[in-house]
Write a structure and sequence with these properties.
heterodimer, A: 11 helices, B: mainly alpha, protease (chain A), metal ion binding (chain A), metal-binding (chain A), EC 3.4.24.- (chain A)
Chain lengths: ~250, ~130
């Protein structure tokens, strides 16, 4: 019952080095297909694309992590449109999703997302990348530290490394195990989209960890579950009162 | 590669919040401003204190930080908030402001890996490449 690692890195873009393009296009084959029209809905229910679309809709409407991220992005000038900024596609390998910075689009791997809870987590993870892209000059393609930082944040804040999820992966640990998980999953996510050694990826994560692990934007805290996410959303909605009275 | 202190937005917000108030002995005299209210509703302080003291939060905090959580400040803030609501206590106001500023400073003390944008990416809302071709 091991969870598939979520890929948080960007898809290929024009001008990207051949090596990186080779890795990314293997994972997201349709991202490079020229003139390949987006798959329309099939007439029958329960196709993987249909399930993906329905789960995505439910996530966007009900999940408190995602609702906060959507509000925060709207506040930053990046209002999210479901049809423009999300795409359900088949992906190779074990990845669950990705953020394509070249098209400002979140890719959801419809063949690898298992259930609603998984969709919630993948959308949260990718929206954190999108949020970083929106609020900062993130050099996704040539700056490994930037990529590592966003992956640390996404692993930390999306629920990827919750105690329950780690137990399902048969990774047992309690004291500060969350940080170990964040380092490991950030490294895995980098390796999924970059043709570099594990050592190089791990070093990049180590370099940025102190700063990026403690960057809780836009949550203001690590949202361990939906209660924390709701409190964080409440605080975000209250921010005008908050900052004008301290 | 450029880095930027996280406090950019914070400083402008703080400046905006304190602008126009009388200063006394190097500290803003916020008690004279009649429009001040606690940064959070008192129910929020109570909810945070209760969450902090819960067994589940102890587990989460230990899992992340390897130590037990500290909840005393939430209790103090709740008491200050109630004190201000009942008596409009200047001391309660000062205490709350100090506490929340400390929280904000603690959250912003790390140096960012990247530079923050002044405006969102120009291509965020542009149509997808294949849609443009159509």
């Amino acid at each position: 019952m091991a969870g598939a690692p979520d890929v948080g890195g960007p898809g290929p873009a024009a001008g990207e080095q051949l090596q990186q393009q080779h890795v990314s296009c293997q994972v997201f084959p349709k991202r490079l297909a020229q003139g390949n029209p987006q798959q329309g809905f099939l007439s029958s229910f329960f196709t993987s694309n249909q399930k993906c679309q329905l789960r995505l809709l439910r996530t966007l409407e009900t999940n408190p992590y995602v609702k906060l991220l959507l509000d925060a992005m709207k506040h930053s000038g990046c209002a999210v449109n479901k049809d423009r900024h999300f795409s359900c596609e088949d992906c190779n390998g074990n990845v669950s999703g990705g953020f394509d910075a070249s098209t400002s689009q979140i890719v959801l791997c419809q063949n690898n997302i298992r259930n609603q809870a998984h969709m919630n987590r993948v959308v949260t993870h990718e929206l954190i990348h999108a949020f970083d892209h929106c609020r900062a000059h993130v050099d996704w393609f040539t700056n490994l530290r930037h990529l590592a930082c966003s992956e640390v944040r996404a692993a930390n804040l999306s629920g990827d490394c919750s105690l329950v999820n780690e137990i399902f992966r048969f990774h047992f640990g309690l004291k500060q195990h969350h940080q170990t998980c964040v380092r490991d999953r950030a490294t895995l996510s980098i390796l999924a989209v970059r043709n570099i050694s594990k050592e190089v990826a791990k070093n990049a994560v180590d370099e940025v960890f102190e700063s990026c692990f403690n960057d809780y934007e836009p949550f203001g805290r690590i949202p361990h579950n939906k209660t924390y996410a709701r409190y964080a959303h409440r605080d975000f909605q209250n921010r005008d009162r908050y900052y004008s009275n301290i | 590669m450029s880095v930027e202190h996280h406090g950019q937005f914070l400083h402008s917000s703080l400046a905006g919040g304190l602008r126009g108030r009388a200063w006394r002995a190097g500290r803003p005299d916020m008690a004279e401003c009649s429009s001040w209210q606690p940064p959070r509703p008192c129910e929020a302080y109570r909810a945070e204190w209760n969450l902090c003291r819960s067994a589940r939060h102890f587990l989460h905090h230990y899992y992340v930080h390897g130590e037990r959580p500290a909840c005393e400040q939430w209790r103090r803030d709740l008491a200050s908030c109630r004190d201000w609501e009942e008596r409009r206590s200047a001391e309660a106001q000062r205490s709350l402001c100090e506490s929340e500023r400390a929280r904000v400073q603690a959250a912003r003390k790390h140096i960012l890996v990247w530079a923050l944008r002044q405006s969102p990416p120009a291509d965020w809302h542009l149509p997808l490449p294949q849609e443009k071709d159509e």
